[in-house]
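Backbone geometry:
***
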Amino acid sequence: MKKIEDLFRAQAASPTETIGLFNGAVGFRVPEYQRPYDWARDNITRLFSDCLNGFHRLGTSGNADAFTFLGTLILVKDERQEASFGGVSVAIVDGQQRLTTLTLLACALVERMTLLSKKIDTLPFSEAVRGWLKAEVEDWIRELTECAIGSQKLKGHKTYPFPRIVRAGDQRGKSAAEAEYRSALGKFLNSFGEYVNGDEGEFQPPSLGSGSEALKLGDNFSLIRELIKSLNDPEWYETAECEIVPIEWISRAGYRALFERLNDTLHSDSDQNSALSELIKTSAAQDLVRTLLFAAYFSRCIVLTRVITDDESAAFDIFDALNSTGEPLTAIETLKPRVIQYENGRGGYGGSASEEQFARLKRFVDEAYPETAAKQSETKALIVSFGLLIEGQKLAENLSAQRNFLRTRYDKAASVSRENAQRFVRQIADVAEVRHQYWTTHGIETLANFHDQSRLDEIQQLVAFLNATKSNLVLPIIARYWRPDLKQAGDEKFLQVIRAVTAFLVLRRAATGTTASIDSDFRAIMAPLGTNKFGLNAGVDKTNALMDISALRAAFRTLLAKSKAKIAEREKWISQTIDNPLYQQSKEIARFMLLIAADGAQPSTTELGCWNKIGVKSSANDVYLDYKTWRSPNYATVEHVAPDSEQHLDWDKDIYKNSIIRHTLGNLCLLPAKENGAIGNGSWAKKRLFYRALTETTEAGQQARFEEAAAQGMKFSNSTRQILKDAKRLPLLDPLVMVDEWTVTTISARGRNIAGHVWDRLWPWLS
């Protein structure tokens, strides 16, 4: 009987340590029973973002959180499958998708560094620095190449290359005559081996075939290439779940240690510091330097748990055992034992404030999301919100990083006092409750538990709108001003915060048309104080003062003024907004704006198609900006007046001279989906009659509209007639039925009118 220690060997290893198995002679093989390589774009992007997050943390930490952990690789040593192979063949029982992707990533890094290194001789460096940089690049290119291409030792000093990973059906050999590569992966890596031994520029992948795996491999390599280029693109990071490493950080210990030839080629500290300073100051070198350091990080700091056995059945048992529990523990579940241990050393966990907060977390996370996968997803989103709340930190939905974040920040909080440690746990529970109450339909319905009746409806309506826009990064801002006893303590300031957030979101997105950089703006509100950073975060080892509402408004105004649209004055904002195709950009923003314009207004008798609020005595019937209307199916769908389709010749041709006008604010209205479907893309004359039927107050008036249509040669079908009879009167259409001709001029005037009412309602919320 085997001893336990002989069953398998497990070890944490980097990619280069993994390919160093058996003195570098290891060759990985994907067995025939494994599924094809099929990782989706999301898998690739997530892996790359996880690596970049670890790469960024290297500048602030030398601990385990600076590494990127990518799971387990289960291998079975088996040389029988490749008789003519001079290396050691191992089958991959688990981890082939990750290992294949990492191999492609290594290839892309080699290609990118090869191209960038050609510029070294043109850079304004001293010969010593240039020589060091060349040596550094050559070493990392060689090391990463070995992740993709191995080398078999032949007789004497001769060697022969081989693809580091192949699939069943491929045959690695000691010569071209013995080797045969049928799979897309084998062909790709064999060709890459020829590329690195040549003197070409870009790598030109060979024809990989037309199968699904071949297409996926080609597409993923193209994606990885683009991601590697994005490593140095600040704009790419705006929407990514990671942050760019500032070039000034390369002198920090974590990155400096990745320059493995620095001590060999530049011997004195002053020479080394001077060389790093040259790199930092030379903008033309920054792409190469950052790529070089990321390549070194890839090689040294990405970690796989490598499990090797000689027994394939044992490998499957290990695989099954590692996956029998399904989803791993959430970040909060791994924090709890640490909290219990801390509290037990200071009076006991039982009955403590921390125990009470974990009971809240159970209610708002575990019980609200009983399915394991849903609980994991919600917890990850919760920790992202909490990271911004507590520290103003951009945190990815990466389980390992989140576990480490909670552990290290809790320890930091606990180092101050027990009260501070308990505050930390309470704030996690607060964020969980805010997410439950303000970001779910059920929670919004029960907000009367937290808000005065006079403000309840408006708060419900505004948070329902924010939720509909999926603006998740507003949650930390809201949570900062929230407290469980809000109803007793007073919620006026809280309403003002919700208003300010809403006003900023609508004014910003309506003018710019997109979400570009708006997440960065919300993060800037929470980030520690600095240039255009406003310090709303709560603090970890101390309690930061809460920003006054006037200061919050001023911060939002600053961000609007520095945005691409430079939003600061009414007329400029209106002009920018009415030219945006809001229907395509955000139907929820457009819907909200249409309701604001109609709220407390009457159809204008001088500007047909528009709303008037001057001298209007509002009544309950004129209220549209409320929670009931927002939820109502009567105004649930944003629709075009002039149809989206260009094939109808009985509309003003100028509307269709470009592809934007028809999607702008002035050409949009709100309708129930069923009613809009009944009229379809009919002419303005028919659509106007349809709208008039929907605005009639009596059945007799509606019948008159049918007769009017018949007199003009138009006939509503029986099903359309029934829809109109069943429909509730829709006064939001009242201004439209007053318009004789629907033209570009009408659309522009109506858009300007709606936008003006929106500005007049929202700007005071910020000023």
Observations:
- The CA atoms of residues 599 and 624 lie 5 Å apart.
- The longest strand covers residues 68-77.
- The chain is about 55% helix and 10% strand.
- The radius of gyration is 32 Å.
